[in-house]
Amino acid sequence: MGKLRAAFYSLTGCQGEYLTILGMEDILLDLLSLVDIAEFKLASSKEYDGKVDIAFVEGSVSTERDLEYIKRIRGNSKILVALGDCAVWGGIQASTSGQDPKELMRSVYKTEKNLYGFLGEHKGISEVVPVDYEIQGCPIEGKEFARVLIDLVRDVKPELPDYPVCIECKVREIPCLIVERGLPCLGPITVAGCDARCPSYNTACIGCRGPIRDEANVAGELEMLLRKGYDRERILDLMSLFGARYKGLRSLIEGGKS
Amino acid sequence: MREIVVEHLARVEGHGDIEVVVEGDAVKRAVLRIYEGPRFFERILIGKSYYEVPDITARICSICPDPYQVASSRAIEKAMGIRVDRQVEALRELQLISDVIHSHALHLFFLALPDFLGYKDAIGMAAQYPETVKLALKVKRAGNAIKEVITGRTVHGVVTKPGGYTKVPRAEDLERLRKQLESSIDGAREAIRVFSSLKMPEYSLDDNLYIAVDPGEHYGYSGEYLLVSDGTRHPVEKYMDLTNEVTVEHSSAKHSSYKGSSFMTGALARLLLNEKRLYGEAKESYESLRDKIDPRNPFSNNMAQAIELLYSVQRAMDIIDGLLDEGIKDKLMVEVKPRAGEGIAVVEAPRGLLYHHYKLDDNGKVVFANLVTPTAQNAANMDKYLRIAVRNLKDLSDDELKLKLEMLVRAYDPCISCSVHLTRIGV
Q1: Is 0.90 exceeded by the ipTM?
Q2: Could you give the CA distance from residue A43 to residue A173 in angstroms, rounded to a whole number?
């Protein structure tokens, strides 16, 4: 059997997923040799317009170009893997969700004109086309990407975490930053996979891996942090940084407005 | 009329095109068009706590998240009148250096070199030049290893905050890092060897104006003053006079000018303005290669990057030695009591000057943010040299011309995600 053909595409974002992949210097060449790389614009001038087995896509769907591009990518690929918080949840830029696009344009570009084909909000890919696998994180964890790539090459269904960062803190015996130090840690609502990176560096989880899909108890977290003395606006602000498009959080924010 | 578009430049970070229009003998248009989607960072920052600012601004860029974190931390500390420990300063210098090492290694070997050797990418190059690629990966790895030890991650580190670092590296981690740097230095020497043996294209030459930070005693990547190649020196607070940002029709990146002239910032600017502050083997390399570095040729930027790569590896080892001799303190975070204020800071990202300017309210929340990025400052200069290149090369076939223009833009190592959507807003 020949190698699978893979391509790496990007929408609106900082390409942190690809820098993370290129940052795995020790295994990079071996890892990339597992597949035939059809296109990887950041690293190669190769161009390819045909069908691929695996499309890795990073970035949010933010512009008309992104929208048209992701539809074409979906049509051309057997397996579509969303890479990183921008591709999964719309990224840090999606924290502007719910704001008037004209006001956004005015505040930044001093015009209400819709420049650059902005769609009015920043979406994760699954809001627009079906996605087969989502690797969360801002940025992704290199090891997780490597595991998924190897699984796909071996025709094994990749397993991705669906439990909170808190579990990883427990495993590593890191004292709870909320209980012990009263920090506004988003570990309870954020999907695991980083080995509790921020808590292990003495700082609260900022939720950069995004909410645990369908299971993040944002209302419970809000309640707990309110009791710790944080104001509602600050907590919702923190939760919105990487999870603004999570339905539970949006209804919490909108509920608070009424 | 002849119209040429290089669609979506490869081997640069972000999304951009080169657009050329030639009519008869006249170059009607030769520009870098940047069409990165808007991300509204300046809007995201408004109302946020000072504490989250370095985490937010890091997300602007993945090649240079560390300069963003260091510059925003510094600007906020200035706004609130906070002084950090000397060891924090040393770690921040290491953090800036980590980015120069990994970014220059990436750019020189993986983004720029394939063109010169006739490949589409470094993977193709690896079969013919296995040793070069191996050394390249090793020195790039050393840059990322500094990031892992100091910031907790290779992209968007987690410990850099206003006031210091939330976790202090252990002496044994620094010792391991030092060994790794030492064994990676051959990669930097290889960059100098390879690039000094290449013939740099000379299809775009002109007088060039430069701006870089004044790093003080040693060659470095931060300071309080800016040096301009017209011989002047300016405090960072005057940055608006040095950037003069304006919007242009063809690009979502703003364009900068100094006294009406486009200018260059980045490795070549730093090397030409601060050559006297180099020391060690990097200084010797520079002395022996000085003739190959033509200030009128943007391709000289690649040689400058190679010399900076060597310098940065050496300098990182020296900083680590200093920290180990002195003994690392176990706490490097000063207590921050939020207060209102205004602060401006500048650092050198790998591709040039990065200014951060914030105003904070009594609770330490951001009420004003302005960031001026290296690629936005270089944008007008890139257009200038593209125009000259098209004038000299317009008899070439479309494909040949496209490649030569792409190579010219790549010599600047533009980082397109960083270049856009950052502009001054008032609230």
Answers
A1: yes
A2: 40
